[in-house]
Amino acid sequence: MSSAKKTAQVVDEVDVALIGAGIMSATLGAMLRELEPSWTQIVFERLDGPAMESSAPWNNAGTGHSALCELNYTPEKNGRIDISKAIGVNEKFQRSRQFWSHQLDNGILSEAREFINQVPHVSFAQGEIQVDYLKRRFEALSANHLFPDMKFSADPSTFTEKLPLMSQDRDFNNKVAISWTEAGTDVNFGALTKQFLTAAKASGTEIRYAHEVIDIKRDGSAWKVYTKNLHTKDITVVKAKFVFVGAGGYALDLLRKAGVKEVAGYAGFPVSGLWLRAKNPELISQHEAKVYGKAAVGAPPMSVPHLDTRVIDGEKGLLFGPYGGWSPKFLKKGSNLDLFKSIRPDNLTSYLGVAFQEFGLTKYLIDEVRKSFSDRVEALREYVPSAREEDWETVVAGQRVQVIKPAGAPQFGSLEFGTTLINNQEGSIAGILGASPGASIAPAAMLELLERCFGEHMIQWGDKIQEMIPSYGINLAKDEKLYDEMWAYTQKTLKLDK
Fold first, then answer.
1. Which of 1, 149, 302, 453 is deepest in the core (most CB within 10 A)?
2. Which pLDDT band holds residue 360 (cuts at 50, 70, 90)?
3. Which of 46, 425, 415 has the alpha carbon at shortest distance from 258?
4. Burial classification of residue 341, based on how many CB atoms lie within 10 Å of its CB (0-12 exposed, 13-18 middle, 19 or more buried)
């Protein structure tokens, strides 16, 4: 520890320290304020404002991930469509809808339309094999009440009616099909985060922007959180009983600094991305849907191509992608040394194992990095055959760090696509790693954190949690009546009924 850190004195003591001003910290803070209003909270953010990394609206697709259109949640196994993951993701998103509705009812969130809007979710198939798969997927999902009012069509006229922009100049001799539901959503997680943090500040939570957490050290039963003011360079220490590390790609390193032995062997694989964003208002007005297709061979699930309607600050937008890329940074506004500094003796075998096993991913990323702007527009033409280069621009997506979990020989390490929660045995510190479905299931992830880290409180908190999220502890896939009640309630509260 540097001499500056050694001489820094504890300046504050709090019950809960939240690292990162993104959707995860904002969600956990909101839950704990309702469960324990007397507990003090503080938020540290290295940037100058909230939701400027992965939660920023143009850094993610804004899909309310409920497995309505995302084909990677319904893999084909031994000739059958496995919908178990789709059901799990859908149930978690229902908890998000319930929690947001409760927060709106109680004045914590202020305006639903700022952060959630109804946008149809569409799955897109091309060619005989994909069309056959999509039809069987539709049949499997539509039989389950979690996926209401889904429709399927392989008729070009229906395709043209639903997706006029995608039909222009399309050769329908190449068979296409779509399945869709009008009940999908677009979510601005940046706006949602800001509403949560505005309420947090009003209730007494201190939020320190431009404060980078540089170390976390055990201090008896509590933690010392060392922060550096990036403007003044001053180092201060805050003592916290519980620490949540919601720092995106930097979470793994901070958990290591805290000596959390549960992250031993874990590693991170950074994946960057690019979008094509429409700059022609006429194009934007012709499309209103989130259209997901099949991923390229070797592509990570987060790189599934989609043509996406966005609603940001009350205005419609349109993006396509993401195109995979690679950067050694663990955050969009991180350092080029992030990856190299993360390699340790305990996770070297994890990195090497994934390097040997993921040849397809490596080839995919190399191919993606080599693409020119014209190459990207050519890929867009699979979705929008009439696309012209002058109507689109390139924007950089948020940086994602995929989790590499340690594993025994002969595997040595496995690349995980999803969201991973890690906590120490005592439950006094926890962090979240990974990517999609991520923000969409933040309330469900934070419920899991509460169970793991605050088990002694769960009985006394039970009624309040049930009030916040009525389906907590209940399998909605088996309780159609409760699902219907919650759907009607959240549709109304979130202003999604058109």
1. 302
2. low
3. 425
4. exposed
Tell me: cis bond preceding 322? Omega within 30 of 0 counts: yes
Question: Would you state the structure tokens that stand for residue 127, as one six-digit string?
Answer: 């060619």
Nearest CA to 271 out of 324, 192, 340, 318 is that of 324
Compute the average pLDDT of residues 226-252. Answer: 94
Q: Which of 454, 458, 401, 459 is nearest to 423 (CA)?
A: 454
- Best CA proximity match to 222, nearest among 250, 245, 241, 202: 241
pLDDT at 497: 77
Phi, psi of 432 (to 5 degrees): -125, 135
- State phi, psi for 412 to the nearest 5 degrees: 70, -30
Q: Structure tokens of 182? A: 């009008």
Q: What per-residue string of b and e applies to 355-385 under the rule 16 or more CB within 10 Å gives b?
A: eebbeebeebbeebeebeeeebbebbebbbe
| pLDDT for the residue 364 | 67
> Considering the domain 3-480, what is its CATH architecture?
3-Layer(bba) Sandwich (3.50)
Measured CA to CA in angstroms, residue 90 lies from 82, 116, 139, 412, 462 at distances of 14, 16, 17, 32, 23
Contact call for residues 61 and 308 (beta carbons, < 8 A): yes
- 240: alpha, beta or left? (left if phi > 0; alpha if psi -120 to 50): beta
pLDDT in tens, 397-431: 887 777 777 765 445 566 666 788 999 999 999 99
**Dihedral of alpha carbons 60, 61, 63, 65, sign:** negative
Close Cβ partners of 385 (under 8 Å, ≥ 6 residues apart): 166, 168, 169, 170, 171
Least confidently predicted of 86-100, 223-237, 285-299 = 285-299
pLDDT score of 410: 45
At 16, the amino acid letter reads: V
State the pLDDT at residue 409: 42
